[in-house]
Design goal:
GO terms for molecular function: FAD binding; iron ion binding; oxidoreductase activity. This protein is 27% helix and 24% strand. The strands form 6 sheets. A 5-stranded antiparallel β-sheet has the order 9-10-15-11-12. Strands 5-6-8-7 form a 4-stranded mixed β-sheet, with helices on one face. α8 packs antiparallel against α9.
Length: 330
C-alpha cells in the first residue's frame, strides 16, 4: 500500500529507496527475514540490499555516549511490536465529528474569469441545471477538466459538480449483473469489485476480474480516489484503459435526459469517434450496467505502455471469447 501511494505522488527521478525504508515502520512486514537469517562468513546479509549489514544483529556494544566516551552496555534495535502502528490506535486523531455530522448543502460559487460553479444534491436539480446550461461541464474529481483549463487554455464558464448526487453514486448487485453509478470513484469501484469477485461464482466475474486488474495500472492512488467512472467514459479518450473493457464486457450505459427519461445504449455503440459520444444536448450518463459473464466466457484486459505504472497506454485492448459447444463465438 505504501509503495502504491508513493508511485503516484513522487517524480520518477526521485530516489525512492530512502523514502520507502523510512515508511517501513508503518507497515506490517515480516521482520523475521531480518533477524533469523544465518550470517555468511560471519556477516549478516541484508534481505533488502543483498549486501553485508548490521540490521540482523541483536546486540550492539561499545556505543559512544553523548559525552564522546565509549559506553559499555547492551542495546537492542527497536522491535517490530514496539513500532507496530496498530498499538497506537487509541492515540490517533479521530476524524472531526463536526465534519461527519455536517450536512451537505447545494452550492453556487463564482470564481475567477466569470466561472460559475454549481453543486446540486438531487438528480432533478442537476438535470434542471444541465437543461439551463447545455454546454456546462460536469465534474467529479476535476482530473480531466482541470488539466484542460490549466494547461490547454480551455474555458468552461459553467461547471457542475455531480459528486453528491445519490443516484449517480449507486453501487449495487443485481440478479443479472452490477449497477455502477457514473459518479462512483475508481478506487471505490476497485474495492467493490474485489468484494464481488470474492463472493460470486468464478464464472460470473470474468469481466469484473479484468476491470479490477486494469484498474491496478490506471493512474495513481490519488487520482483514482477522485476520478469517476462516468468521467472517464464520457471523455472518450482513445487511450482510456477501461472503455475497451466496457465494450468487450457487453456493458450497457443508461442515459437520462432533462425530463428524467432513461434510455440504454450498448457500450460498443456509445463511442462515435474521437472524443465523441452518443449524448444529446441536456443528457447525462446516469449509470453503467455490467452483466455477469457466462459459463465458458472469458474476458481479458491488455495495456502496453512505456512504463508499468502511471503512464498512458500505447495500446489498450479488451477481449472476450465465448465458447459455445464445439464452435467458437466472438
Amino acid at each position: 500500500q505504501i509503495e502504491e501511494c508513493l508511485s503516484g505522488n513522487l517524480c520518477r527521478c526521485t530516489g525512492y529507496r530512502a523514502i520507502i525504508d523510512a515508511f517501513r515502520v508503518f507497515a506490517k512486514t515480516d521482520h523475521s527475514v531480518y533477524t533469523d537469517s544465518s550470517p555468511t562468513n560471519g556477516e549478516f546479509i541484508c534481505p533488502s540490499s543483498g549486501k553485508p549489514c548490521s540490521c540482523g544483529e541483536s546486540k550492539v556494544h561499545s556505543c559512544v555516549g553523548s559525552a564522546g566516551h565509549a559506553a559499555s552496555g547492551e542495546h537492542r534495535p527497536v522491535s517490530y511490536s514496539e513500532i507496530d502502528g496498530s498499538i497506537y490506535k487509541d492515540k490517533e486523531l479521530i476524524f472531526p465529528p463536526e465534519l461527519v455530522l455536517r450536512h451537505n448543502l447545494p452550492l453556487k460559487l463564482h470564481g475567477f474569469g466569470g466561472i460559475t460553479w454549481y453543486r446540486p444534491l438531487k438528480l432533478k436539480n442537476l438535470l434542471d441545471l444541465k437543461s439551463l446550461y447545455p454546454a456546462a461541464k460536469l465534474i467529479v474529481g476535476n482530473t480531466e477538466v482541470g488539466i484542460e483549463i490549466n494547461f490547454k487554455g480551455a474555458q468552461y464558464p459553467i461547471l457542475i459538480s455531480v459528486l453528491h448526487v445519490p443516484e449517480l453514486n449507486v453501487l449495487s448487485i443485481k440478479e443479472n449483473g452490477l449497477e455502477i453509478g457514473s459518479s462512483v470513484r475508481l478506487s471505490r469501484l476497485q474495492e467493490f469489485l474485489k468484494e464481488v469477485i470474492a463472493e460470486r461464482e468464478i464464472h460470473e466475474t470474468a469481466s469484473c476480474r479484468a476491470i479490477s486488474e486494469q484498474l491496478k495500472w490506471f493512474a495513481g492512488k490519488q487520482v483514482k480516489n477522485v476520478a469517476s467512472v462516468g468521467g472517464n467514459i464520457c471523455t472518450a479518450s482513445p487511450i482510456s484503459d477501461l472503455n475497451p473493457l466496457w465494450m468487450a464486457s457487453r456493458a450497457d450505459f443508461h442515459i437520462v435526459d432533462s425530463k428524467g427519461n432513461i434510455r440504454t445504449v450498448h457500450a460498443k455503440d456509445f463511442f462515435l469517434g474521437y472524443r465523441k459520444v452518443d449524448l444529446a444536448q441536456g443528457e447525462i450518463l446516469h449509470s453503467i450496467f455490467l452483466p455477469w459473464s457466462r459459463h465458458n466466457e472469458f474476458v481479458k484486459e491488455f495495456k502496453q505502455s512505456h512504463r508499468r505504472e502511471d503512464d498512458i497506454a500505447l495500446v489498450n485492448a479488451g477481449m472476450r471469447v465465448h465458447l459455445e459447444g464445439v464452435g467458437l463465438k466472438w
